[in-house]
TrEMBL record:
Residue span of region Disordered: 308-331
Pfam families, alphabetized: Glyco_hydro_18
Protein name, UniProt field: GH18 domain-containing protein
Record-stated family: Belongs to the glycosyl hydrolase 18 family. IDGF subfamily.
MF GO annotations: chitin binding; chitinase activity
Record gene name: Dana\GF13995
Ranges for domain GH18: 25-441
Coiled-coil residue windows: none
BP GO terms, sorted: carbohydrate metabolic process; chitin catabolic process
Localization of this protein: Secreted
Signal peptide region: 1-23
Domain of life: Eukaryota
UniProt keyword annotation of Secreted present: yes
Record keywords: Developmental protein, Disulfide bond, Glycoprotein, Glycosidase, Hydrolase, Secreted, Signal
């Protein structure tokens, strides 16, 4: 009896080691520090930050960059980071929130100093890699951060028309897999170099008990740059930018769901433009599910509808004219933060509004598979047409539930400064962040 008991206990320990019990899910909060510099209602203050941190397991401060000459990690906003001591201010919050891990992110589409410095870093060899690693470790330790997030700005997939008849859809697939859409002829070499850099970075950081995470930006073909089975053990977690599959900049003439959870069937859409496909791609490469976080955007993508776009709003919407006019708060054409989108929905203040202030029609997704959209057809003069694809608190909650069901690491929110952090729409501050957190509990 005794030997049988010990055998059972030993077998249980082996099984626990092979199939570890998942820890609490991650809610990785990306913080784009440019939000601190915005004016008016869009300015994200340290008080707002402290409210957000009540929901986060990790805070990722963005963004640092890479010096194109010596490959060292550097600030790309020295006035904010150093002169105004914003990096230090954020790091000091660790004292009040000791359970949160603070990481510094490098890249993230914010580093515009030189176009290909991240590829050049990969090609720089052991000497360049060493300089990057040592400089990154110095800055992370100097400001008492817990680690580094690699959000490298690598070449994107070429934008292409993705809808049409069966023949054109097949041609798009064929070009994708036969190389006509290749944007980096040396991607295999760069993949090996990336693997070496990540392994060396992880080894150096582990000596100081520091974390290393990877963020795969939208429309970067992960197969070209990341040898998933080889780097998984060197990374604490991986954030997938599973949004912006279509954008008005990349796809100006047609509007469609920018971040569907599953493949949207019909109209011969490309099958890999959805969260589930991207996630399964990493799982099939034997990356542990609990290291993968799906990305959710707190902003929507907005196209300009024309008279030729029709008035039904049903996606795919053709004959659009690229990005819609920038919002008063987000100030970027083709992008509206959640507060701006929410306030465009019919409400007492815009009931009788006309022109660019007229309300949009909201179309919900009862299947929870594709996401909601909203639109305003162009008027008789062809003006003020608008079509928006977005995640709202409901769809964000559904994606968080997807992460729970799949036993994933959790969710990465891009980013907290674009949520309705002032409660402008419903008096509920950080509605998307809250919705995700409550579903992950």
């Amino acid at each position: 009896m005794t030997s049988s008991l010990w055998l059972s206990l030993s077998l249980s320990l082996v099984l626990l080691n092979q199939f570890p019990v998942n820890a609490a899910p991650n809610l990785v909060c990306f913080y784009d520090s440019r939000g601190y510099e915005r004016q008016g209602l869009a300015q994200f203050t340290m008080t707002d930050m402290q409210l957000a941190l009540q929901f986060c397991t990790h805070l990722i401060y963005g963004y640092a960059g890479v010096n194109a000459d010596n490959f060292e990690l550097q600030s790309i906003n020295k006035r904010l980071d150093f002169e105004q001591r914003h990096l230090a201010q954020v790091a000091q919050l660790k004292e009040s929130y000791p359970h949160i891990k603070f990481l510094l992110s490098v890249g993230g589409d914010a580093d515009t100093n030189e176009g290909n410095q991240y590829i050049h870093l990969l090609e720089s060899g052991q000497q360049g890699h060493k300089r990057f690693i040592e400089s990154a470790r110095d800055i992370v330790r100097r400001f008492n951060f817990d680690g580094l997030d690699l959000a490298f700005q690598l070449p994107r997939n070429k934008p292409r028309k993705v809808h049409g008849d069966v023949g054109s859809a097949w041609k798009s697939f064929k070009k994708f897999f036969t190389g006509d859409f290749i944007v980096d002829q040396d991607s295999e070499t760069h993949k090996a170099q990336m693997t070496g850099l990540i392994r060396d970075l992880s080894a150096a950081f582990q000596q100081n008990n520091l974390l290393v995470s990877l963020t795969v930006l939208p429309n970067v073909n992960s197969s070209w740059y990341y040898d998933a089975p080889s780097i998984a053990n060197s990374l604490d977690f991986i954030n997938l930018g599973t949004f912006d599959f279509l954008t008005p900049e990349r796809n100006p003439e047609e509007a469609d769901f920018s971040a569907p959870l599953y493949e949207a069937f019909g109209q011969n859409r490309l099958g890999h433009y959805n969260v589930n496909f991207q996630m399964e791609h990493w799982l099939l490469q034997r990356v542990p599910a609990n290291k993968l976080n799906i990305g959710i955007a707190t902003y929507g993508r907005a196209w300009k509808m024309t008279k030729d776009s029709g008035d039904s709003g049903d996606p795919v919407v053709h004959s659009t004219e690229g990005p819609a006019t920038a919002g008063a708060q987000s100030k970027k054409a083709g992008l509206l933060n959640w507060a701006e989108i929410c306030q465009l929905m019919p409400n007492p203040s815009n009931r009788n509004a006309q022109g660019p202030n007229a309300p949009v029609k909201r179309v919900l997704d009862p299947t929870k598979r594709y996401g909601s959209y909203a639109f305003r057809p162009a008027d008789d003069n062809g003006d003020h047409g608008l079509w928006i694809s977005y995640d709202d608190p409901d769809s964000a909650s559904s994606k968080a539930q997807y992460a729970r069901v799949k036993n994933l690491g959790g969710v990465a929110l891009f980013d907290i400064t674009q949520d309705d952090f002032r409660g402008q729409c419903t008096n509920d501050r950080f509605p998307m962040l809250r919705a995700i957190k409550y579903r992950l509990l």
